[in-house]
Write a structure and sequence with these properties.
This protein is of the alpha+beta class. It is built from 4 helices and 6 strands.
Length: 132
């Protein structure tokens, strides 16, 4: 899962807090008042950014090597599994309805499986994503 470890640069927000930005996922930017909160917010920002890639039918990038001075943010295994499925669907040009047909399940089942912000996506017992 090391490919789903994302390097983030941390800088001051000039108000006593911090901003995190990801070179691999420029859409994911977040801010917090302390570093622990920033790490949690950064993970949530990455998870939310996945939705942009899904909407655009683009594969979500893997993380690059963490450089000195950066922090590493890891996606939860449940999210990585969904990203792997979604990336495979994008690469194979398979729509959710097509996957449902191939799996012989209702389209809602594939939607639940691929919904990155599904309320069942949990990390360490803590709800992540928009439903948090």
């Amino acid at each position: 899962m090391s490919n789903y470890l994302y390097p983030a640069t941390v800088e001051s927000n000039n108000e006593g807090g911090f901003i995190a930005k990801f070179r691999d996922v420029p859409e994911a930017i977040t801010e917090a008042w302390d570093l622990e909160e920033l790490k949690n917010n950064a993970r949530d920002a990455l998870i939310s950014a996945i939705d942009f890639y899904i909407e655009d039918r683009k594969a979500f990038p893997v993380g690059s090597t963490v450089k000195s001075g950066e922090i590493a943010i890891e996606l939860p295994a449940s999210v990585v599994a969904k990203v792997l499925l979604l990336n495979t669907m994008v690469q194979a040009n398979v729509r959710p309805i097509d996957l449902a047909r191939k799996m012989k399940v209702k389209p809602q089942e594939v939607t639940r499986l691929t919904d990155i912000l599904n309320s069942r996506t949990r990390a360490n017992g803590v709800l992540t994503g928009a439903n948090a």
